[in-house]
Amino acid sequence: MSDDCGCTGDETRARTDPAYRRALWIVVILNIGFGLIEIVAGFLSGSQALKADALDFLGDGSITFVGLLALGWAAATRARVALTQGLFLAVLGVSVIAMAVWRALNAVPPEAEIMGGVGVVALAVNITAALVLARFREGGDAQARAIWLFSRNDALANIAVIAAAGLVYWLNSAWPDLIVAGAIALLFIHSAWEIIRDARGELREERTA
Questions:
Q1: pLDDT top residue among 175 and 6
Q2: For residues 110 and 90, what is the distance between their CA atoms, to the nearest angstrom?
Q3: Nearest CA to 14 among 5, 23, 3?
Q4: What is the DSSP secondary-structure string of 68-137?
Q5: For 42-70, what is each residue's pLDDT tens digit?
Q6: pLDDT band at 143 (very low <50, low <70, confident <90, very high)
Q7: Does 11-208 carry CATH code 2.60.40?
Q8: Domain chopping of the chain, boundaries
Q9: How many Cβ atoms sit within 10 Å of the Cβ of residue 6?
Q10: Would you place residue 94 in the very low, low, confident or very high pLDDT band (cuts 50, 70, 90)?
Q11: By CB neighbour count within 10 A (0-12 exposed, 13-18 middle, 19+ buried), where does 88 fall?
Q12: Residue 20: exposed, middle, or buried by beta-carbon count in 10 A (0-12, 13-18, 19+)?
């Protein structure tokens, strides 16, 4: 799993600290649950930024979920699962960019009210996740701090979605939505690449050992 993105948590701590494990499960439920809601809202509103943000939620939640399930698995098995996840998430990110390009050729402004409202709820969800993890970030655990920072960065992306919704409403243009969607998708692909890179490195170490 990716150390750089900080999505998976500290496996040793998750085994020994029930409170930390419960916090990670709360983050999983928040991310996957709202990600499913947001992807529907993205299609209903015609917002590519909401779709991209939904994939970010689903990616964060699924990575943390698999990380928790894989605590007892062999290192090589966890690395293979991570590699598969990274490839799948990269494909999703590329698909968002492709859809944004296609929408740019047929640019129709999304429903700004739905986009802005869902963006506000998404921000609340990420702030909640950050607060759930906040008490673990100062315990000397770099991964716990990384997960907290990841949730904080997601909240900044939500603010960008809300700002884009305001610009869509003001300008009656699809471009703010498409620009934010592209930016989120690129960050998503970057995270997927980090997962793939780290998983391949772990597999090489296993073969060497």
A1: 175
A2: 25
A3: 23
A4: HHGGGS-HHHHHHHHHHHHHHHHHHHHHHHHHHHHHHHT-----HHHHHHHHHHHHHHHHHHHHHHHTTT
A5: 999 888 888 888 888 887 787 778 767 76
A6: very low
A7: no
A8: 11-208
A9: 25
A10: confident
A11: middle
A12: buried
Torsion of CA 55, 61, 65, 71, to 10 degrees: 100
Q: What tokens appear for 35 in the block?
A: 């990600």
Give the model's pLDDT for residue 131: 84
Gap between the Cα atoms of 102 and 18, Å rounded? 46
- Least Cα distance to 59 among 150, 128, 161 occurs for 150
Residues 6 or more apart in contact with residue 26 via CB below 8 angstroms: 129, 132
Structure-block tokens of residue 145:
């701090």
In angstroms, rounded to a whole number, what is the distance separating the alpha carbons of residues 189 and 95? 10
First to last CA, the chain: 19
Question: Minimal CA–CA distance to 193: which of 93, 94, 90?
Answer: 90
pTM beyond 0.90, yes or no: no
Q: What is the percent of the chain with per-residue pLDDT over 90, rounded to a whole number? A: 17
Token couple for 57 = 């939620």
